[in-house]
Write a structure and sequence with these properties.
Elements lengths: L5 H8 L12 H11 L4 H4 L2 H8 L3 H6 L2 H8 L5 H17 L5 H5 L6 H10 L11 H12 L8 H11 L6 H14 L19 H6 L15 H12 L8 H8 L1 H4 L3 H13 L14
């Protein structure tokens, strides 16, 4: 079986010190999953604890102003994820947690992966791990000898359903696959020491073919993303700036280096996305 050796390796080498792995509380699990989307584990460590210290339950988060949640989120990127988390807190505070995957998918900002992660890691209601980029890569390579972009998701799910070692819980299986992907089965794999190397269907191919060139990350300095972040931080100060000139000054070089019209367009987009209060106290867009 393609997962032979995984359970033993995970017991010794798994990242058991990650704090969010010590809980099955659905709110704590959801916060960790949202924070970890496109964000390195090292950046989330510490931030998860501080977020839950302020808002340990959906009810507590729902009662907080969105601006407070966005301020706490600064540095984690993608503030729309924080808004989605805040919106989900309101839904759960009012109606409780959905008990089906379809119901979880109806929560704001919760997609297929996050819904399945909650089912496995918090509710214990599914035996098939969620498929993120790492788990899909591990499964496609080890079980099928292929890269995940060439394999239908249904086939990967079949392999995941059949691959869980006997005696290993779905939750532990999921964490073990996360760790195998993060520590070894990367885009450029580190096969030495990988728990799946002995039975991996891609071991020979990966050892002989030329590694794919790494994509360069989009430049952040001077990007619209940098400008969005600077404007949002400025608008979350108290009191917020009341004019475009004041907003540019408060946002710093990321905004002062741009035309006022561009700053106004980005601010308008943040208002439309529900990240900035459109009340008369905020900058008026003409």
């Amino acid at each position: 079986m393609w997962t032979r050796g995984l359970a033993r390796w995970y017991g010794v080498h798994g990242r058991h010190d990650l704090p969010w792995r010590a809980t099955a509380d659905p709110w704590a699990v959801l916060v960790s999953e949202v924070m970890l989307q496109q964000t390195q584990v090292a950046r989330v460590a510490g931030r998860w604890e501080s977020f839950l210290a302020r808002w340990p339950t959906p009810e507590a988060c729902a009662a907080a102003p969105l601006a407070s949640v966005l301020r706490e989120w600064q540095g984690l990127g993608y503030p729309r994820r924080a808004r989605g988390l805040h919106d989900t807190a309101k839904v759960v505070a009012g109606s409780g947690w959905p008990d089906t995957e379809a119901g979880l998918l109806g929560l704001p900002g919760v997609g297929r992966y996050t819904a399945r992660a909650l089912r496995v890691l918090a509710f214990g209601a599914s035996s098939v791990p969620p498929q993120d980029v790492n788990i899909a890569r591990v499964t496609a390579r080890a079980a099928l000898g292929r890269e995940p972009d060439g394999v239908h998701q249904t086939i990967l799910e079949e392999q995941l359903a059949a691959g869980r070692p006997r005696g290993m819980s779905p939750r532990a299986f999921t964490h073990a696959l996360f760790d195998a992907g993060a520590l070894h089965c990367r885009t450029r794999p580190l096969c030495d020491g990988c728990p799946l190397a002995a039975v991996c269907a891609s071991r020979h191919r990966l050892a002989t073919e030329r590694p794919a060139s790494r994509r360069r990350a989009p430049r952040y300095r001077g990007s619209t993303r940098e400008l969005r972040g600077a404007i949002l931080r400025a608008m979350l100060t108290d009191p917020p700036p009341m004019t475009i000139d004041a907003l540019q000054a408060r946002a710093g070089v990321a905004a002062t280096a741009r035309p006022a019209a561009e700053v106004a367009l980005v601010l308008d987009a943040l208002v439309q996305e529900g990240l900035v209060d459109p009340s008369p106290r905020m900058v008026r867009i003409k």
